[in-house]
Design brief:
With about 270 residues, the protein is an alpha+beta fold. It contains 9 helices and 10 strands. A 6-stranded antiparallel β-sheet has the order 4-5-6-9-8-7.
Amino acid sequence: MVDSAAKENGAVAMRQWLRFAVIIEGDKRGMAETKYDKIYRDLKEKIEGDRYPYLSYLPSEYSLIEEYDCSRNTARRAIGQLAKEGYVQSIHGKGVQVIFEPAVEESSFLFGGIESMREAASRNLKKLRTKVVFFCELTVDERIAKRTSFPVGIPIYYVQRVRYIDGQALIIDHNYFDKRVVGELNKGIMEASVYQHLEKEVGMRIMTTKRKMTVEKITQIDEKYLELGDYNCMAVVSSSTYDDQGNMFEYTESRHRPDKFVFYSIAHRKG
């Protein structure tokens, strides 16, 4: 009995120590990622704003380290993220070249990245307005579980949001959020920026999104809220998004009028 109790106490102590170590390491990673994220976002903004135009070169690695007062690894990580998103490419012996071209008419969306609608609109130099047309709290039933992959019985928010791009109603989002993970949401948050709220107010780290795109016939809801013209089909992007703890906190079906959007991905050949 004594040996068993001692082992159990030792196991509890070890779990507590490991949890503490994980928290400390997470804080260290958070500090480093804040620096990297600041550099990445600043360079991205300068590229989109034509400070570094198409086919120009970014400042040298040494210049970036001096400008941002960062380590070589932090600078390289920021450049690596820009490369993954199709903004730049490294050319041996020359430097880092800008390959981003601003959209002219259609709004472009990176199919393989995690980008909020507000961020996408800003990058495309479009004016965005969001209107919540339906907002409620539900308990997941078999039908919703089959659609979203959320487990039966959990509380969720179900929201319909119309996206106005330069004044035109072109997108309707059907959002499902796990209330246990995201906490309290309301129409105001949904019409502003959900991701900004989750990251800055809740402290969530949004890590991974899985997406698929289909073409589907228009629905009565599409016809009710969107300016469809003669179109009878929609480009539908279904997304499942996860935080850094592995929780799927959001499932969204984003229904787009097909003539106004371009979805693209970036591929890198290995070898």
